[in-house]
Design goal:
The structure is a single chain. The chain folds into two domains: 1-31; 55-85, no CATH class. 41% of the residues lie in helices and 9% in strands. It is built from three helices and two strands, in the order αααββ. A hairpin with a 2-residue loop joins β1 and β2. The chain is elongated. It starts with a helix and ends in an 18-residue tail after the last strand.
Length: 85
C-alpha cells in the first residue's frame, strides 16, 4: 500500500511539474501568429523581383530550416528554433 501511495505522489508531482513548465514556456513569448502583422498590399504590390522582397527567405532542408542571411549557409536549424530566429 505504501508503494502505491508513493507512485501516486510521483505521478502528481510530475503532472504539476509539466503544468508549470508548459505555463512558463507559454508566457515567454507570444505565439508567432500574434507577432505577424496583417497584410498591407501597399508594401508588396510593386514588387516585381525577389530582391525587393523584405520578408525572410527560407529553405527547408533535410537537416532543418535555413533562414537566408541569418543561419549559416546551407545549414538548417530545428523547426522549433525558427520563431526565435
Amino acid at each position: 500500500m505504501a508503494a502505491s501511495k508513493a507512485r501516486l505522489l510521483v505521478v502528481i508531482f510530475i503532472a504539476q511539474l509539466l503544468v508549470t513548465i508548459l505555463t512558463v514556456s507559454a508566457q515567454i513569448s507570444p505565439p508567432l501568429r500574434s507577432r505577424i502583422s496583417k497584410p498591407d498590399p501597399k508594401k508588396y504590390q510593386a514588387i516585381r523581383d525577389e530582391q525587393d522582397w523584405q520578408n525572410p527567405k527560407i529553405f527547408v532542408r533535410p537537416t532543418g530550416i535555413e533562414v537566408i542571411g541569418i543561419t549559416p549557409l546551407a545549414q538548417g536549424i530545428p523547426a522549433e528554433s525558427v520563431p526565435d530566429v
